[in-house]
Amino acid sequence: MIPPGETIGILGGGQLGRMLAVAAAQLGYRCHIYAPEADSGAADVAAQFTCAPWDDAAAMARFAHDCAVITYEFENVPVGPLAAVGEVPLRPHPRALETAQDRLAEKRFVSELGGTPAPYAPVDSADDLAAALREIGTPGILKTRRDGYDGKGQWRIGSAAEAAALDVPDVPMVYEGFVDFFAEFSVILARGTDGSLAFYDSARNRHEDGILAHSSLPAPAAVMAQVPAARELAAQVAQGLGYVGVLTLEFFATEAGPVFNEMAPRVHNSGHWTIEGATISQFENHIRAICGLPLGETGLVAPGVEMRNLIGEDVADWQALLADPANHLHLYGKADIRPGRKMGHLTRLTA
Ligand code: AMP
What we know:
Elements lengths: L6 E5 L3 H12 L3 E6 L12 E4 L5 H9 L3 E4 L21 H7 L2 H10 L7 E4 L2 H11 L3 E5 L9 E4 L2 H5 L8 E5 L5 E9 L5 E3 L4 E5 L2 E7 L3 H4 L2 H14 L4 E10 L2 E8 L9 H4 L4 H9 L13 E8 L6 H5 L5 E4 L10 E9 L1
Parallel strand pairs: 1-2, 1-4, 2-3
Antiparallel strand pairs: 5-8, 6-7, 6-8, 9-10, 9-11, 9-13, 11-12, 12-15, 13-14, 15-17, 16-17
Helix pairs in contact: 1-10
Bound molecules: adenosine monophosphate.
């Protein structure tokens, strides 16, 4: 058990790190953020900040020196440089990062556990793409295996002719058949160092332009009916990875059952509602899990919850949003408003 007063290292400097650091502070921990970008919403609320490239082994070792445990708020942290942390425990284990960083590896891993991803094929060349289109058909989506997020690194393909005209970077990709879903939902769980598991209610998620726009609870009955099978898979993923912390799996709800989309070895945007909407938030439960503390209750504190992301210019309305006294407004302290950038979110408990 890591007692309050100790320092938690967080790799990544964005809003997830910011909300983790707030939860950690509430439990009496200090946070040390490590991020390559100087402009860090997480560092603004943390005790210490190391701004250095991921592969700066000396900076990584210095950072790790005073940390009792190290975690991530960003899943694309390169795994190699983490060797510099020495004996300090990394939670979750970097094998979870390795699996989730690569869309092909995560699909294979989940398939081996009996999960169902969209039909997929690896694409490393134009010939591979032609073969994938023949095998899987169109429409589909070509995605980079690594470094994609919020719909970036993705190309929708409606026909073979469209594929031929594509100008895509020469990096490993995966082609996925387009899934005919009626809803999207996520399973968020916390797993303790003793293997204990706690699941949050599954939100129905709505994406716009590949970016999460809304999460609402309770999810419709047709989605709820798919949650047990999705949880079963998520539990197996967590167990298979020896996972400690909060883990998220995203699913498509289809007439044939839940189809796995992707996983994130971290707290997740579709769980932001848990700050006000659950007894103990995903952020606090992540901190509890990585520190070896007992997990907190995950249940809803109201009949329903709505979470809306404030993306780009949406944030300009922040004052109007405060005019409704029931709105919980979260702003991430980002100075530059850019289209598609997550600037904050809004949560409302509903009757
Ligand atoms: P991703 O970054 O892979 O989660 O993709 C972002 C969003 O694009 C998803 O949440 C879906 O709304 C949509 N999407 C991604 N892959 C597929 C797919 N194979 N079929 C249908 N929609 C998809």
